[in-house]
Design goal:
Elements lengths: L2 H11 L16 E3 L2 E3 L6 E8 L9 E8 L3 E8 L4 E8 L9 E4 L2 E4 H4 L11 H4 L8 E4 L9 E9 L11 E5 H9 L5 H11 L6
Parallel strand pairs: 5-10
Antiparallel strand pairs: 1-2, 2-3, 3-4, 5-6, 5-8, 6-7, 6-11, 9-10
Length: 206
């Protein structure tokens, strides 16, 4: 099965569906201290900001921004001896794709999800993150027109041999050419795109 057939299969088996509802109907969220958030202040909030002396199209304006209460962690595993990357097909509710599925890094999660604040399962792939030193991560800024001072910690882990590890469900080794094709087709999520750029500007040999 080639990579695109595999990807289409991952999309077809995804059961994630979304529908638009009013903010008043988002259970567990509400207006607190002039921001829309959870009462425990976890994950993120929608806050209003006033922008002044911007030197942009307008000198001043007001807008909402997403402000996260914890950073995120993304990791891309690179198998150097075969020039492959371990990528996952990940469903996220905001993805404009069949089954809400796009290609994502080996590991992608917020700190709160890693700490199981949501009360659910621990994200798959934590075993790849645990051995990595904090100093190895690069800060990857998010879109400042939508997010308030958000940074994601990203790292590309390059190894000669990857043996004895269990490949989580919905993961697959992609060659450089396969990832290039997926990139051109717009099938890579922003975190995967960021890490591929990071790999290209580091000592990772494509």
């Amino acid at each position: 099965m080639d990579w695109y057939e595999w990807f289409q299969k991952q999309q077809s088996v995804s059961t994630m569906k979304t529908e638009n509802v009013g903010l008043a109907h988002v259970s567990g969220w509400g207006m607190y201290s002039e921001s829309f958030r959870r009462p425990d202040e976890r994950f993120f909030e929608i806050a209003g900001v006033r922008v002044k002396t911007a030197g942009r199209e307008l000198d001043e304006w007001y807008q909402p921004l997403l402000r996260e209460s914890s950073d995120g962690v993304v990791l891309l595993l690179h198998r150097r001896n075969r020039r492959e990357f371990l990528v996952q097909a990940k469903a996220e509710p905001g993805n404009d794709a069949l089954g809400c599925v796009l290609l994502a890094p080996t590991f992608q999660a917020s700190r709160h999800n890693m700490q199981q604040v949501h009360g659910g399962l621990q994200p798959m792939g934590m075993e790849f993150v645990d051995p990595v030193k904090e100093s190895s991560f690069t800060k990857l800024p998010a879109d400042g027109s939508r997010y308030f001072r958000k940074e994601v910690l990203g790292v590309v882990v390059s190894m000669d041999f990857v043996e004895g590890i269990t490949i989580p469900p919905h993961h697959r080794w992609f060659t450089v050419d396969e990832l290039r094709a997926a990139f051109v087709l717009g099938l890579c999520n922003p975190h995967l795109r960021d890490l591929l750029v990071l790999a290209a500007f580091s000592d990772v040999r494509f």
